[in-house]
Specification:
The complex is a heterotrimer of chains A (253), B (333) and C (322).
Chain A (H helix, E strand, L loop, with lengths): L3 E10 L2 E11 L4 E5 L6 H9 L4 E5 L6 H7 E4 L11 H6 L14 H13 L15 H14 L4 E5 L7 H16 L3 E5 L3 H7 L2 E6 L2 E6 L1 H4 L2 H8 L1 E8 L2 E9 L3
Parallel strand pairs in A: 3-7, 3-8, 5-6, 6-7
Antiparallel strand pairs in A: 1-2, 1-4, 8-9, 10-11
Helix pairs in contact in A: 4-5
Chain B lengths: L6 H21 L7 H10 L3 H36 L11 H14 L2 H4 L3 H20 L6 H25 L9 H6 L7 H27 L4 H6 L4 H23 L5 H9 L7 H26 L7 H19 L1 H4 L1
Chain C lengths: L4 H21 L28 E3 L2 H10 L5 E5 L11 H4 L3 E3 L3 H7 L3 E5 L4 H9 L4 E4 L5 H15 L2 H18 L9 E5 L4 E3 L4 H8 L3 E2 H4 L5 E3 L2 H7 L3 E5 L7 H4 L7 H7 L1 E4 L1 H5 L5 H16 L20
Parallel strand pairs in C: 1-2, 1-4, 2-3, 4-5, 6-8, 6-10, 10-11
Antiparallel strand pairs in C: 7-9
Helix pairs in contact in C: 2-6, 6-7, 7-14
Classes of the chains: A alpha/beta (253), B mainly alpha (333), C alpha/beta (322).
């Protein structure tokens, strides 16, 4: 069973092609890391897949009507926007929006999903504080918890770990890994190749709007490919049975 | 932090306040009727002149005050929620000014004499065009500065065109009525006005009420809201049409009353935990209370002078606006 | 601004606001020609010789002059004289050149007498005086004594004293005919003007109402001059007769107040007399016609004498004017 199927999906921003026609399939149990340099088309690919950006080709998610799509996939945009000083708990509760009838009070399932997501992101301690008063990193965790509370089969997240301290980066990736372990799936765009190598079951590397590599972290993150795609020299090793990636210097042109 | 009043209690308290002000509004007027005489005239029709005063002059005025105040508070809260900007307000954004222009065109051309519905419809048209222009110009993505500047430009343009239309009218009284369209008044309004405006206001309220859920989700930004199943195009339509219909109809019969849509949501935002959907009914009640109070005040301060409502609401509202500008200065910069 | 009628005059003054009042305070004395007038004036004449080139700048002097001037004596009247809303003599105004109260155009007419109102065209008047023209100003008439005085003064200025006396006598005869019997009931009338304004004591409208044998609600509620009479107090006053200003087309909000539904029951009982703006604006012989019409409406209301039909207030060029 596939949670997301892309067939020849392409995205344009005006005259510029952001994503060339791309095929991709995401199945249950996968934590897919979407890696690649700035401007490679990672965000555009995810927004096109969700039907948020005008796209050519086919996406199984974009084809769904809006309420069904909201139950099939959660989306955590890169821009961390919190417009009003609502409490953390209220904000996380917005994740339950697609699952509730208009005007219905929170059900028991809603409450436990909200509490679980807050506990997972270590924010239960400030459930009653206005979300706008938190630090940037805390706000990021609140927004991740919002996406987790949605409990969708598939979660797409655009750079969720950016700006978090190391402990919360690990907690964040751990949460997505748990989703995969529960039989759901997550697609996460990342700049931290170390986190990508350590947590993802599969990496999709993009460059210039195309997928240039797709497979297990070991197979995707090779010194040659990183030199070619990012223009960097990398120190690669293994620890605790997983790949460790440490960028060292810029490659000489 | 003090625990705020539970939401149902807040709404009930506001409802009681509005009901009390509504009754006071019925009891205040230059005729100087006593409390029991007023009640007897209103409810039992005792005394011909008293009954006329209560039923034909004061009752429609109080009803319009309530409905127009609710309209301004509600549409202010909805526009703020949609634009995610606490400075949004129908008056400041030029929506009211455009509605005035439409109403002026309908009245002074004589069109509304032939076809009475032309008045609310043309005011609605003006308000609708202005809202679409603003959302197009400043957009849901536009910053506070763009929005306010666009509103200033639109207000100035509509004000100038209104003044031009009134000055060019061959009727010598028209030019003296610019104050009504700029500042608004409920003086000597009748059930005819209520009948003309109420259907559009009610329809507008329904549309804005429908928007509440979407506005909550929009707290997370457009992308996240869309991913939560909110249809942004429909939400925009509901907000634009709802604000245009209700503000347009309100302005068509009472002129341009500013700042209620700014002050009511601002006063109540904290009390509802800043949730846009909960703010809608609270701001509607708050707006009704504010406008009824202002209309009582104009009758007490200068009973024989027809002091314009907008004078009072601006005196209260402008300092609020300045405070808000100060607190959002970082975003404006 | 082209604001006719007592109400309109008041509205204009409200609008012009402090400027008008300040102007009044600083005004050159109204009746005397400026002392030491320069010698550029038209050929001097003896005081008793009638002027031959008369120009009027003001609606009210326009009408008095048209009524009294000898053929060919009056050269020009103001543009308002042909405005049907304010001029009772618009049909005759066409026979004269039109002026807009600007010093330049008046200068080119080389008048030997300029007639103006005390409150109109102040700058023009003082400039014309500086240029050496003879300018006579007339105060607005607030009662019938003032009308008589202005008729006689106009007659004297134009050398038409006999005609003026006859005109004043004819006006008095009309007023006498309209006067109610001493024991006749005096119904209460309410003057309904735009934007809830009403005329109280000390206004020409009040004089017309009382001369017709009616009581004026505005005055009984303590209004002197022009003031706002809130709709509520009007309704509570329960007038027997509503006298409404004739609305303009296109409409205005101010005039819509006169059609408030709260007035419907009063109208159904009392009926309404259209107020002929044109004859109520200026005090003149035709003011007595307005009184006669209103007096007929009063008799219809009280059933006094034969049931006089309501005379539609059509201000035709009036009979006195012959």
């Amino acid at each position: 069973m596939s949670l997301l199927t892309l067939r020849g999906l392409s995205v344009r921003h005006g005259d510029r092609v952001a994503v060339h026609p791309t095929d991709l399939e995401i199945g249950p149990g996968e934590l897919v890391g979407l890696v690649g340099p700035n401007g490679a088309g990672k965000s555009s690919l995810m927004r096109g897949a969700l039907g948020l950006a005008r796209a050519g080709g086919e996406s199984s998610l974009a084809a769904l009507p809006a309420p069904a799509r909201a139950r099939a996939a959660a989306w955590l945009p890169q821009a961390r926007e919190i417009a009003w000083a609502v409490t953390v708990e209220t904000l996380v509760g917005l994740g339950r929006h697609p699952l509730r009838a208009p005007g219905a009070p929170l059900s028991g399932a809603d409450r436990s999903a909200i509490a679980g997501a807050m506990a997972r992101m270590d924010i239960a301690g400030f459930a009653d504080r206005p979300a706008t008063e938190l630090s940037g990193g805390e706000q990021a965790r609140v927004l991740i918890a919002r996406a987790l509370a949605q409990q969708a089969p598939l979660t797409l997240a655009d750079e969720p770990a950016a700006g978090l301290d190391p402990a919360h980066q690990l907690a964040c990736m751990g949460a997505f890994a748990d989703l995969a372990a529960e039989g759901r799936a997550a697609v996460v765009s990342l700049h931290d190749l170390g986190l990508a190598a350590r947590f993802c079951t599969r990496l999709v590397m993009m460059a210039g709007g195309r997928v240039v590599a797709d497979g297990a972290p070991d197979a995707v993150l090779t010194a040659d490919r990183l030199r070619e795609v990012y223009g960097i020299e990398t120190f690669l090793t293994r620890a605790d049975g997983a790949l460790v990636v440490q960028p060292m210097t810029l490659s000489r042109p | 932090m003090t625990r705020p009043l539970p939401y149902p209690w807040l709404l009930a308290a506001l409802g009681v306040l509005v009901a009390a002000l509504f009754c006071v509004s019925l009891l205040v007027g230059p005729a100087g009727l006593g409390f029991f005489d007023s009640l007897a005239a209103l409810l039992a029709g005792r005394g011909e002149a008293e009954t006329l005063v209560m039923r034909e002059i004061r009752a429609p005025r109080a009803v319009l005050g309530l409905m127009i105040g609710a309209t301004l508070g509600l549409s202010g809260a909805a526009l703020q929620g949609y634009l995610r900007n606490p400075l949004a307000e129908p008056g400041l954004l030029g929506v009211t000014g455009a509605a005035s222009l439409g109403a002026v065109a309908a009245i002074y051309s004589g069109l509304s004499l032939i076809f009475p519905l032309a008045l609310p419809l043309m005011a609605l048209g003006g308000a609708g065009l202005a809202s679409m222009l603003l959302i197009g110009l400043a957009g849901a993505r536009g910053g506070a500065l763009t929005l306010i500047l666009a509103g200033v430009a639109l207000s100035a343009l509509c004000g100038a065109l209104t003044a031009l239309a009134l000055n060019l009218s061959p009727n010598p009284f028209a030019a003296t009525e610019i104050m009504f369209w700029m500042m608004g008044s409920l003086s000597d309004r009748s059930w005819t006005h209520v009948g003309l405006a109420a259907p559009f206001m009610l329809a507008g309220w329904a549309a804005l009420g429908f928007a509440g859920r979407g506005l909550d989700a929009l707290t997370l930004g457009e992308d996240a809201a869309a991913s939560l199943g909110v249809r942004l195009d429909r939400l925009r339509l509901a907000v634009v049409l709802g604000a245009a219909a209700s503000v347009g109809a309100a302005t068509a019969v009472a002129g341009g009353i500013g700042f209620v849509g700014l002050v009511a949501p601002h006063l109540l935002r904290r009390a509802v935990g800043a949730r846009p959907a909960r703010l809608l009914p609270a701001a509607a009640l708050g707006g009704a209370a504010l406008l009824l109070a202002a209309d009582i005040a104009v009758r007490l301060i200068a009973p024989e002078r027809d002091l314009k409502l907008g004078v009072l609401t601006a005196l209260v509202g402008a300092p609020f606006f300045l405070r808000l500008v100060l607190s959002t200065r970082r975003r404006l910069a | 601004m082209n604001l006719p009628s007592g109400m309109r005059r008041a509205a204009a003054m409200t609008l012009a606001g402090a400027a008008a009042l300040a102007g009044a305070a600083l005004a050159v004395p109204a009746t005397d020609p400026a002392p030491g007038a320069p010698a550029s004036a038209p050929a001097p004449r003896g005081e008793n010789e009638a002027p031959r080139r008369v120009v009027s700048l003001n609606l009210c002097t326009d009408q008095l002059a048209m009524l009294l001037a000898a053929p060919g004596q009056l050269l020009s009247v103001s543009s308002m004289a042909s405005d049907p809303h304010v001029s009772a003599m618009r049909d005759r105004a066409g026979a004269f050149a039109v002026n807009h109260g600007r010093a330049e155009e008046i200068f080119l007419m080389r008048p030997d007498l300029v007639l103006a109102g005390t409150y109109t065209a102040r700058e023009t008047v003082s400039m014309l005086r500086r240029l050496g023209f003879r300018v006579e100003t007339f105060a607005p008439e607030a009662d019938f004594d003032a009308i008589r005085a202005n008729i006689r003064r106009m007659g004297a200025l134009l050398g038409r004293e006999a005609q003026a006396e006859a005109m004043a006598a004819e006006m008095d005869a009309r007023l006498e005919a309209a006067r109610p019997a001493p024991d006749a009931p005096r119904p209460l009338a309410a003057l309904l003007e735009a934007a809830s304004w009403s005329s109280g004591a000390g206004t020409l409208a009040h004089e017309i109402v009382t001369a017709a044998g009616l009581r004026n609600l505005g005055a009984e509620l303590g209004i002197t001059g022009m003031a706002r009479l809130p709709l509520e107090r009007l309704v509570m006053g329960a007038p027997d007769l509503l006298i409404a200003a004739r609305p303009y087309t296109p409409p205005s909000l101010s005039e819509q107040g006169m059609r408030h539904p709260a007035l419907d029951p009063l109208q159904a009982r009392a009926g309404r007399v259209a107020l002929s703006d044109a004859r109520w604006v200026c005090g003149a012989p035709f003011t007595a016609e307005a009184v006669a019409d209103l007096s007929a409406a009063r008799r219809a209301l009280t059933g006094e004498g034969r049931s006089a039909a309501l005379v539609p207030a059509a201000p035709a060029a009036n009979a006195v004017a012959r």
